[in-house]
Amino acid sequence: xxxxxxxxxxxxxxxNLLKHAIAPRPICFASTMDKxxxxxxxxxxxxxxxxxxxxxxVFSPLRKMRDGSTxxxxxxxxxxxxxVINIVNYDMVQQQxxxxxxxxxxxxxxxxxxxxxxxxxxxxxxxxxxxPFQMECKVxxxxxxxxxxxxxxxxxxxxxxxxxxxQYLDENNDVHxxxxxxxxxxxxxxxxxVTPETLFEVxxxxxxxxxxxxxxxEDVKFSKxxxxxHLGQLGNVEALxxxxxxxxxxxxxASRLDINKFKPAEVRHQVAAKLLxxxxxxxxxxxxxxxx
Length: 292
Hints:
alpha+beta, two-stranded antiparallel ribbon, oxidoreductase activity, acting on the CH-NH group of donors, NAD or NADP as acceptor, single chain
């Protein structure tokens, strides 16, 4: 068990660590409009999807830390409860950052950051042409937590229409994450990038009820060669392999190699760990349960 150190809210250390802890955070690149028709474009990393029926996104333009004043985006959605949430990928990340500069009210960040505005179909604020996903939204509610510096203003936005750049859609109108090159915010000045090298799949446990780690044999549960991730994979099976299947596996194995060298349980655990890293859960269980 690793030692921990504790931190209380409302300190500089806590605020900094919180942004590192809750990460990566997707970026809501929100275009809004005031009642006079002036357009604003600004990114927010306190953002996520919160529902599907209806489709709801939530983002939070915090009050400014220095004086508790409100941001132009918040003032705009109070005056004109519509926005477009434009998703940010790597090709536009530096321009997105430039748009976060605190320009004077009335300054159009589309122009300052060099983005191309295109007309929305249902709402009035324009979309960002460079964004791979552009979601027109009606603001259903704004929940202001307080008027203190750094306080949240939770904008609840219903997506009424979504636009996707065709280059990312396949013949089934699906997208592949390795093609999107999306980015997200971390703590401090740090971002991260979704690349093919960083992607991996975790099977959703929706097709069966896994046995869980608690029902595993003790030597497996407390193996020094199996990580928590390995145990999670093993615990997602609906039942342990039947004895007959294990014996068949052992017989086939013995026909190909000398299985006596795998007699120590720790050797079989090491083999199982490698199989789990390759996603072969069934074979890993055979190795773990095989009696030599």
